[in-house]
Fold this protein.
Amino acid sequence: MAQVRRRWLPVGAGVLMIGLVPVIVGDSLPGRPIGGPTATTPTWITPRPTRRQPDPEPTDVVAVLLAAGDIASCNSSGDEVTGRMLDSLAGRIALLGDIAYGYGSAANFSECFDPSWGRHRGRMRPAIGNHEYMTAGGAPYFAYFGSAAGEPARGYYSYDLGAWHVVVLNSNCDRVSCAAGSAQERWLRADLASSGRRCTLAYWHHPLFTSGANHPGLTEVRPLYQALYDAGAEVVLAGHNHQYERFAPLAPNGTHDPAGGIRSFVVGTGGGSHYPFGTVKPYSEARNSTAYGFLRLTLRSTSYSWQFVPEPGKTYQDSGTGTCH
């Protein structure tokens, strides 16, 4: 069969293709459809690909926070147990103080804490405990964690995690005042006012509410709790007593406030040792003093859930959900 040759010749404002193909004449340019309400694109012209629209933003943002305090001692094997648990638990790690016993010294960090937990240091955000201050100024603590621990003169800072704002405070109120009007309390109120996040969580070392027999609640932190309550915060975490305890949402004076109160947890279960409970305080809803482990918080855009994850071989469980104010 003879090959058909084609050539293009201008005809007025349009074009004419001569050969065994239709002739197109009109107010057009080669490769473009002819104008007019009834025009269609010639079948030999490949349409320009449509740009893919971006996927819609997710309706929920999920982050995980693993919390425990009172952790590593060279005289205990509990921190080795919890350290191995971290190998299979994803999420940011909140350290609730008393991280390296007994003095928070450089040797305690390098010989007791680092071998069991140190491989996960990159995802840790610590709060300073009283044992860290047993070495002058908590210097080894700040040296070990660097900028992740905040400024050494303050020991308090904040960060965002998923859709949540997280505040880490210094409850060593004899070192950095916790009083109303103090530098820490003023910073906290300003930080909360500027966060722009609906959901807020805070943690420090000394609990305000606890049923522990070894240490009573530290009333000096009440102004910090008050500032968080005024801002509509959801959750407060602490350690210091070596046990697990959960309280119902409470106002700063300890009264039950199911609509606007803060749910608080004591999670001194990092591996150092176990303490007994004393008189159970009002609105204490869950308690355990025999299992090491972590409080696993799943933080969503407008809600959260919690689960106590015990060490292998222990069966204690506690879980639930809450919504942001």
Remarks:
- Residues 1-58 have pLDDT under 50 and may be disordered.
- The chain has two domains: 7-36, 63-323.
